[in-house]
Specification:
This protein is α/β, with parallel strands linked by helices. The protein has four domains: about 290 residues, no CATH class; about 90 residues, PAS domain (Beta-Lactamase, 2-Layer Sandwich); about 150 residues, 2-Layer Sandwich (Heat Shock Protein 90); about 120 residues, Response regulator (Rossmann fold), CATH 3.40.50. Helix content is about 55%, strand content about 15%. The strands form four sheets. It has a five-stranded antiparallel sheet. Strands 7-9-10-12-11 form a five-stranded mixed sheet, with helices on one face. Strands 14-13-15-16-17 form a five-stranded parallel sheet, sandwiched between helices. A hairpin with a 7-residue loop joins strand 3 and strand 4. The protein is elongated.
Length: about 800
């Protein structure tokens, strides 16, 4: 909020008026003009006080300024009516009433200012201020209020009593408020108000002394005029502080400067009293003047020591600030309004990016200059950060933050802090990539789980249908095709589960050379006639612990990618050998190769350079997931038009090779004779549950099938229900299969348990639960695998 009247205009007004009062001594006819010229000073002061109240941030300060404005408005209105009455030689009996109401409002407003300074007796400077104010106020009250009353012979006029009751409390309250206020700017305003009160007291005394010869517009009005000027400037200082964007914080211990305006007003009043011939008070005037001078000198010396202490503290803080700034890695600039560098932080100097006086925009890429200029010039909206690239290092991203200090006379520009965010942004990108992979892993696992349930139903029903058909039926070929297609679908779901890391892993120790030898016929069927397969480099005895099917899938995916990279033919070389504590698998092709940009993304899920419909972008992503799960690493080295080499490193495990699991081909089992064994079958998928129950009943077992773990627990808790085996799915809504296994051990500790699963949710990823089960059947299962696992579990339990 701007001031009501600018300071230069007000100073010109004051000088013109005071000069005119001097001329009125020579030209008495100027009196009416000066009386009219006196009117605006009061209006300007009152409106400035009111605006200071509206701009105040504190409710109490707002009320204080508005009460002061109201009190002074009452005083101004009464003064204008009194002046009109004096000019027209008419009585004005309400003059004293206006003075009393005005003084009451002013005193109330002054007392509304909140205490923000400690008590005066806790500060030596405040003690001197108190003595100084006590001497000055006492002298003013005695000289201009009490003594005139004592000198009157006879009845004292009511005006003098009212003047005493009005002026004395105001002087004392202003002095008291000055000691209570701790804010430096507000103390300056109160000090100016003290000066105005002193001038008003001396003006009232002059008028009383010269009342028989007084006319409006004479030089006697000058002290009243100066008092209004001081009130205006007091309100102007407060309004400037409230309107400033850089509000000075309240300093509870700051005493500010001595009320120089009040002291000056007191000196002027003392001189006026001496000039008017009050010879009986000259000695008192001299004593007061000497006492105030001594107190002022002592106070000034104390203020100098205090200032020295502040200077030392500021210098110490400046040294600490420079030390902190010297260690900071952020780039700190002060930019003037012409976008030139006015100050550089040590980090900028160390990097030798700019020098003082250089253009700030020259630090960045040309294409970003306009954006940076607009960002600095913007005055609307939040000053958010701006990311730019350095001219000297285009790969580095610098985040800029600013403070607009163009209104600060000490800066007149912007304070800009820059931070190199390149490493942080790269880390954020890796985190986002990891989160995306985690979501894809979970999605792939759940999709595979759903398809496993479907495939389990298809394979089971195909085998049951094959059992029911005669050997000579032409429909057996269709059943075989259905079974084969489902088996291929099961291979796809195994890939998805391998990528998602959401399956039950069964690792064994294998020799990679043996796995390659067994896989060669399959790899040859993948390659067209123009491509040669070379697997001559195979070092036997390099044992690794892996899941065989996933290891085979890694090799198959790499060979498939190599084939697709050589549409015109070429050579695929596969090598397996020891290399220190690791086993090394290399798949090399002589194909089209890859650019560095493509190499940086080849392991990203769903990234592919193949035409639409020719690739899913999951091949190398699955390879990376499977290798990392086995504790290994995968890397790629490619040159365009030369070829590509993919290297897989797996940790060696020098142990005895486990017996490789027997590879079974699903067979059709003949109906078995009825058995006395009862199986509790738990699966939330109705199709899978029905197929499993039919397979088990056809194998001769009695089956109780339920759709959830809650029903299963009720049967397990009923000891009258004979149960020989629990066959449960792992992933079920509500109580999961793992929780069912744990709870069933508490109900029937010796009951054999078989888990049917192809996916384990994130909360069930631990292998500890496998210790509580007798067997695990992976989905999609065949008739033989399911019935074989059941008979094996019952056989081990003694059934």
């Amino acid at each position: 909020m701007m001031s009501v009247v600018p300071v230069p205009v007000m100073l010109a007004y004051l000088l013109v008026y005071l000069g005119a009062t001097l001329l009125s001594l020579v030209f008495p006819g100027m009196g009416p003009v000066l009386a009219i010229g006196f009117i605006p000073i009061g209006l300007v002061a009152i409106f400035t006080m009111w605006h200071a109240g509206r701009a105040a941030t504190s409710m109490r300060e707002r009320l204080a300024w508005q009460l002061l404005a109201s009190g002074e408005a009452c005083f101004w209105v009464g003064g204008q009516i009194w002046t009109w009455a004096m000019i027209n030689d008419r009585p004005f009996p309400l003059d004293s009433a206006f003075d009393v109401v005005s003084s009451a409002l002013v005193v109330t407003g002054l007392l509304c200012f909140p205490r923000t300074a400690p008590p005066w007796w806790r500060d030596r400077r405040a003690i001197l201020d108190s003595l100084l104010l006590a001497v000055a106020v006492s002298a003013m009250v005695w000289l201009f209020l009490v003594q005139p009353i004592r000198e009157i012979r006879g009845e004292v006029p009511a005006d003098l009593w009212i003047l005493l009751l009005v002026t004395a409390p105001e002087l004392m309250v202003v002095a008291w408020v000055y000691l209570r206020v701790g804010n430096a700017a507000l103390r300056a305003s109160i000090g100016l108000w003290l000066g105005a009160a002193a001038l008003s007291a001396s003006a009232d005394y002059l008028w009383e002394a010269l009342s028989p010869r007084y006319l409006p517009g004479t030089w006697v009005d000058a002290p009243w005029f100066l008092a209004w000027g001081l009130r205006w400037y007091a309100a102007h200082l407060a309004l400037s502080q409230y309107a400033s964007t850089e509000m000075e914080p309240r300093n509870e211990g700051a005493r500010g400067i001595t009320p120089a305006a009040f002291v000056a007003g007191t000196y002027i009043s003392l001189v006026a009293a001496a000039v008017l011939g009050r010879t009986d008070s000259v000695r008192l005037l001299g004593f007061v003047a000497v006492t105030m001078t001594v107190l002022l000198l002592i106070r000034q010396r104390m203020e100098l020591h205090y200032t020295e202490d502040l200077t030392k503290q500021a210098a110490s803080q400046l040294r600490r600030f420079r030390a902190l700034l010297a260690q900071a890695t952020d780039f700190v600039f002060v930019i003037d309004t012409q976008f030139r560098v006015a100050f550089l932080g040590p980090a900028v100097e160390r990097a030798q990016l700019l020098r003082i006086g250089d253009g700030f925009l020259s630090l960045f890429q040309d294409m970003e200059h306009e954006q940076i200029r607009s960002w600095l010039d913007s005055t609307t909206g939040p000053p958010g950060p701006l990311r730019c690239r350095l001219r000297a290092a285009p790969g580095n991203t610098v985040e800029l933050r600013k403070q607009d200090r163009r209104d600060d006379p000490h800066i007149r520009g912007w304070v800009v802090v820059g931070r190199d965010r390149s490493m942080e942004l790269a880390l954020e990108q890796r985190v986002r990539h990891s989160e995306k992979l985690a979501a894809l892993h979970d999605m792939a696992g759940r999709v595979a789980h759903a398809y496993n349930n479907l495939l389990s139903s298809v394979i089971g029903r195909a085998e049951l249908l094959g059992e029911a058909l005669p050997v000579t039926s032409p429909l057996r070929n269709d059943v075989t095709s259905i079974h084969s297609a489902a088996a291929k679908g099961a291979a796809i779901t195994r890939q998805l589960l391998g990528f998602s890391d959401a399956h039950v892993a069964r690792t064994v120790l294998v020799d990679g050379a043996q796995v390659l030898s067994d896989l060669v016929p399959v790899l040859l069927r993948l390659l067209p006639g123009g491509i040669t397969l070379d697997v001559s480099h195979r070092e036997t005895g390099a044992l690794v612990r892996v899941e065989v099917s996933q290891f085979e899938q890694v090799i198959t995916n790499l060979v498939t990618n190599a084939r697709d990279a050589m549409p015109d033919g070429g050579v695929v070389r596969i090598a397996w050998r020891r290399e220190g504590p690791m086993a090394r698998l290399e798949v090399t092709d002589t194909g089209c190769g890859m650019t560095p940009e493509v190499q940086a993304r080849v392991f990203d899920p769903f990234f592919t350079t193949k035409p639409t419909g020719r690739g899913t972008g999951l091949g190398l992503a699955m390879v990376a997931a499977m290798v990392q799960r086995a504790g290994g690493q995968v890397s790629i080295d490619s040159t365009p038009e030369v070829g590509t080499r993919v290297t897989v490193q797996l940790p060696l495990a020098d142990e005895v090779v486990d017996t490789a699991p027997e590879r079974r081909t699903p067979t059709v089992a003949a109906p078995a004779t009825p058995s006395a064994h009862t199986i509790l079958l738990v699966d939330d998928d109705r199709e899978v549950r029905q197929v499993s129950a039919r397979i088990l009943r056809r194998a001769g077992f009695q089956v109780i099938d339920v759709e959830n773990a809650t029903n299963a627990l009720a049967l397990l808790a009923d000891q009258s229900v004979p149960l020989d085996l629990l066959l449960t799915d792992m992933m079920m809504p509500g109580i999961s299969g793992r929780e069912l296994v744990t709870l069933s051990r508490g109900l029937r500790p010796t009951l054999p348990i078989i888990c049917v699963t192809g996916f384990v949710a994130a909360g069930d990823g631990s292998d500890e639960w496998l210790k509580d089960v007798n067997a695990v059947v992976e989905k999609p299962f065949s008739t033989a695998s399911l019935t074989g696992a059941v008979r094996s579990a019952l056989g081990r339990s003694g059934g």
